[in-house]
Amino acid sequence: YLEHLVVASKWRIILGYVTAILLYASGPFATLWIPFDVFVLIQETYNTFSDEEKKESRTDSQKAIWTDTFPNSVAWTYSLLCLVLLMFIFGLVAVVCMYQMKRFEKYRTWIFYFTPAMYLLYMVYAGFRFAYNNQSYNTWFGPAGWVFVLIFFFASPLASLFFISLPPLVMFELMIVFVLVFLVIVPLCNPAGNLWNLIGEASNSSLNQIQDNASEVPAYVSAAFEAGLSNSPTEEDIRRVLTCYMTAPIILLCVLVVCVVVVSVIVDISNRQSF
Fold first, then answer.
1. What is the pLDDT of residues 176-206, one digit of tens each?
2. Domain locations in the chain as residue ranges
3. CA distance 228 to 226
4. Which residues neighbour 15 within 8 Å (Cβ) at sequence distance 6 or greater?
5. pLDDT of 126-161, one tens digit each?
6. pTM here?
7. Which residues touch 256 (CB under 8 Å, ≥6 apart)?
8. Could you tell me which of 85, 88, 89, 91 has the C-alpha nearest to residue 111?
9. Which stretches are transmembrane (predicted)?
10. Helix H segments across 48-194?
11. For residue 13, how many other CB atoms are within 10 A of its CB?
12. CA–CA dist 19, 125 (Å, integer)
């Protein structure tokens, strides 16, 4: 059956690799090359410090921001960045060779072994980066910025799993690893502390901002409150709404994880029927 599946899934697997390469290259890869000069400057500045100044700067540095935690890591940071891209490219080349060359025809089922392995390696890499870089978007999104870092920066290449046709059990294992790494282990065990608690802090911060700008409520809203057409929301109501807004992306991510597994099962049933 696996031999039939690997042939029937040829273009889905190739499309998955191409999608992973494009998402990674246009997301994490390209994004980190933009501030390359800044990272080099940070490293050069850090290297001019005395040992005591280095220790003091590390103590005073912000938690879970890559350049603060690893200020002297430009070389190996960008080496790993390029290695991950090369890993996906070599995977695509290997898949194409296995499909095009007859000498590899009897080894095509190996695709179902090294493809999940590459995604697991990427999750290990992304999980490590996420643990020490989950606060980098706080300037724009506040304490809940780690949610956006996760979805748009680290999890985006994994969207290619929608296209790759892997056995359901393999896909289920990949999704379990994803949930454990990015939604359980790293959010609970990282230098910034419990990331889930930061959602509450973000809600409180937004609530304070709303209260500070209460005088800027549109006139028609104030008129509705005064006329009794609508009740003014309580602090608890506002906090509940803000929490829902901030957890909605995570809920959507979990729904997508379930969808990946369900789609994999449906495709597998269809393939078995055709087999």
1. 999 999 989 988 888 777 888 777 665 555 5
2. 2-274
3. 5
4. 163, 164
5. 998 888 888 777 767 777 788 888 888 888 898 888
6. 0.80
7. 159
8. 91
9. 12-36, 76-99, 111-132, 144-164, 169-188, 250-269
10. 51-60, 66-69, 74-100, 111-131, 138-141, 145-148, 168-179, 186-188
11. 24
12. 19
